[in-house]
Amino acid sequence: MNILLRVICCFLLIEGLQSQEDQSPNIEDIIRPWPPCDGLVGVMLPHPNDCRRYYICTYGLAKVQWCPDNLHWNALANRCDNPEVAKCVNNNHKIQVTEVRKVLQPHPSVNEENLIKENDCQLCNDLCAQTNQRYLPYPGDCHKFIQCNGHIGYINTCNDLYWNAKLTACYGYCVPN
């Protein structure tokens, strides 16, 4: 147990140093083993020291996600939100990852049947390869958007909000693209 705690502390320290040096995601940050994700599928956890980042856990692996500009990860609502609502202070979440892991259940819309299949991601990858934009609207669904990291695309959901391509943010109503 003591060794595990040391590993987690080292990981958090390294993450903190990396996020101070570079606010953009590194390819090695996209998917990696992360102890707080052990045994969890579809659970989203806050990044320990960056309000705009969060992790999606899948069988012990953590996939780094970024909120659109001007939004912070809201650990209680499981979505990117206005900073005043998300209550992330000084890039340190008030809620610790270990506390969130105890109370957080997978988002109701996430289960084995509706996890994004590889061929669905191919559409995202193709769209990302055709542009230099970081965020794209998801074709046919205002609640979703595509986050591009190079030529790799990830589908994100605005939950109760709608993606606004002009603002590159989740917004109160759908603006057709």
TrEMBL record:
<keyword id="KW-0732">Signal</keyword>
<dbReference type="InterPro" id="IPR051940">
    <property type="entry name" value="Chitin_bind-dev_reg"/>
</dbReference>
<dbReference type="InterPro" id="IPR002557">
    <property type="entry name" value="Chitin-bd_dom"/>
</dbReference>
<keyword id="KW-1015">Disulfide bond</keyword>
<protein>
    <recommendedName>
        <fullName>Chitin-binding type-2 domain-containing protein</fullName>
    </recommendedName>
</protein>
<keyword id="KW-0147">Chitin-binding</keyword>
<dbReference type="GO" id="GO:0008061">
    <property type="term" value="F:chitin binding"/>
</dbReference>
<dbReference type="Pfam" id="PF01607">
    <property type="entry name" value="CBM_14"/>
</dbReference>
<dbReference type="GO" id="GO:0005576">
    <property type="term" value="C:extracellular region"/>
</dbReference>
<keyword id="KW-0325">Glycoprotein</keyword>
<keyword id="KW-0677">Repeat</keyword>
<dbReference type="InterPro" id="IPR036508">
    <property type="entry name" value="Chitin-bd_dom_sf"/>
</dbReference>
<feature type="signal peptide">
    <location>
        <begin position="1"/>
        <end position="19"/>
    </location>
</feature>
<feature type="domain" description="Chitin-binding type-2">
    <location>
        <begin position="34"/>
        <end position="90"/>
    </location>
</feature>
